[in-house]
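pipeline stage [seq->struct] | target=Helix-turn-helix domain-containing protein | organism=Paractinoplanes rhizophilus | residues=287
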Amino acid sequence: MSEPVGPAIARVRLSTHLRTLRGDRPAAEVARAMHWSLSKLNRIENNKVTIQPVEVEALAHHYGVRDPAEIRRLVDLSLISRRRMWWRDEHEYLDEDFINFIAFENDASHLYGYHASLLPWPLQTPEYALAMTSSILRKPIDDPDVRKVVDVRLKRQETLRDRLDGDFPPRISLAVDEAVLLRPVGGDEVMAAQIDHLVAMAARPEVQVVVLPFRLGVHPGLGGTFELLTFSEDEDLDVVFIETPATGFLLTDAADTTPFREIMDELLATDPAGDSLDRALAGAMKA
């Protein structure tokens, strides 16, 4: 049984294949033949919009594709790419780049991340997430804006748990600075429960948590927090998301994402024995 394809990867594959099929044909000429604007064709080929199955079939015929199986494959990619997933219902208050990142996240075979100040979202308890978000947004825990952010995070966790318990569980590799474990968030009870949850998550075979100790000194992660996604079915595609207090940035070009894969490899290599979390927690309890 092959790993299923989700909407994000289906869009990438379809847009790439359609651009390949066009070959040397002028885009303007194809757009006229399809009775489209040039902008529409460009947006389809650049994975900015989805394309309806009937349009895919018509475009394939225009390009001379006659194999029914090949046309069926393209139509199936179109159908998958247009599935309405839960994150599309959050568009009113989430940045488009963040929505697209969540879509890629659902298809990723390996989720990486470096976090300098707080525990990464896959490891957070709801109480930790609420306390953290309330502080960052400078609003009470019961404020609607706080709840919206945390609700999306919990939905991401639910989706990830379903995948971890499924037939094709992704791998998760996260690097955090030691300060993350020493910073109390939400009070003693919240932090104690959070540490218990962290230990339970790190015990899963799919999850790797590396703690970067203070004694390590400077390291390449100090350039800033980021998340990186890789895909076993599309090895040429890496996706990076960088979040700031104002907005977020989605990177997909190899020239932009390659440095982050190299940084992640270097950070994970600091824990060859795989015991950095145990050592850090022991040190935190002594402190």
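stage status: PASS
auto-comment: The chain has a mean pLDDT of 93. The beta strands are 110-115, 171-177, 207-212, 226-230, 238-243, 248-251.
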